[in-house]
Amino acid sequence: MENAQQYTPLTELQARRKKLQKHLVRQNIDGALILQNADLFYFSGTSQQANLYIPAEGEPLLMVRKDIERAKTESAISPVIPFSSPREIPGILKDHGIPLPGKMGMELDVLPTNQYFSFSRFLEKTELVDVSTAIRMIRSVKSEYEIALIRKSASLSDRLAAEVPLLLKEGMTEVELAGLIEGKARKWGHQGITRMRLFGAEMFYGHVMAGPAAAAPSYLASPTGGIGLNPSFAQGPSMNPIRPNEPILVDVVFALDGYLSDHARIFSIGKLPDFLVEAHRAMLDIQNTIKEAAVPGAITGDLYELAVSKAQSRGLGDYFMGAGDQRIRFIGHGVGLEVDEFPFLAKGQKMPLEKNMVIAVEPKAIFPGKGVVGVENTHVVTENGLEQLGTFREDIIVL
């Protein structure tokens, strides 16, 4: 039996394209060339090896190097044409009655410098400008179609958390537990890859870690790090055995049909020390405070400061979102096709929230040498605050 694929409807692609075209017109940009995988999928419905040209007015043009037949099946855009090199783009545009752009937008936040120089050479009469922020802002506000897909991912996050007590055994290693969780996720359709936009940022499913190892910092822009298996990927689960009476963090991104749910729960084999239990309750209180305050128009940096103030009032300021100089200066981040989308509930951010933004809120307390407690859920911004998509119990699950 063939696997049923989820294809993005043409009406969805048209609505996204028109939002970008409005920006192009406002900024006097003649068109945008989309290359990055997540953006390409967002605007075209395919992630085949392709370049998508979106003019400021008119229909887009999808140029595919590999594989064109799959791109024709996956994308509702027309026309879809073959090409073998970006150097062909000026001629292709001319053949389709599209003037060579005097000013063209590109995703300069992620475009490799060598590619930028290459485009500059064969588009020598075209000014290349950055449209990455506009694209990320467009993507930050989700459609009902996207929210429905994220809801599916969130329901599978809950289902995965419910499996943990059945998989967890004393003495098993962190990576063994992670592998069992990942196996379940794959069986239910997890795509495997979890995309991140930030240069050098990497993630494999998420963080499944226990006790002191979970509190070890790493290079990742995350409150939790983990020892990992080796210095080449120095984060996440390790070969350390899971012991009784220590917090076990299961922080896993479920990725279904391209869209993500970020979800974390705390488990333990036996009772945890009282200070960890109290800290966990404080993190739940912070989450609830943010959920009420995060209405359309709320300023992202103000929400971060509100969370910090709440943590300090509970005596947890030194452990909130990291310890010491390793502290991360955010409390939440947008999720969608990537795990680090706009908006960021972070120090100094001035972005106002908008209805239908999707945000993972993750208040965590990090105790070096002891472990991590806290929670993470994916939410939708509504007129009344955040609607939480994950419903699995949030207290510490003691086995």
Characterise this structure.
The protein folds into two domains: 10-139, 3-Layer(aba) Sandwich (Creatine Amidinohydrolase, Chain A, domain 1), CATH 3.40.350.10; 141-398, Creatinase/methionine aminopeptidase superfamily (Creatine Amidinohydrolase, Alpha-Beta Complex). The chain is of the alpha+beta class and 399 residues long. 34% of the residues lie in helices and 22% in strands. A hairpin with a 5-residue loop joins β2 and β3 (61-66). The radius of gyration is 22 Å and the shape is elongated. The chain contains eleven helices and 17 strands. The strands form four sheets. It has a six-stranded mixed sheet. The longest helix has 24 residues, at 144-167. α1 packs across α6.
Give me a quick take on this structure:
The protein has helices spanning 10-26, 37-44, 68-74, 89-95, 113-122, 132-140, 144-167, 174-187, 211-214, 274-293, 300-313, and strands at 31-34, 49-55, 61-66, 80-82, 103-106, 127-130, 206-210, 248-256, 259-268, 330-334, 341-346, 358-361, 364-367, 371-374, 377-382, 385-388, 397-398.
Rg result: 22 Å
Q: Could you tell me the mean pLDDT?
A: 96
Instruction: Determine and state the CATH class of the largest domain.
Output: Alpha Beta
Poorly predicted residue ranges = none
Find the structural class using helix and strand composition: alpha+beta
Number of helices: 11
Q: Please, how many domains?
A: 2
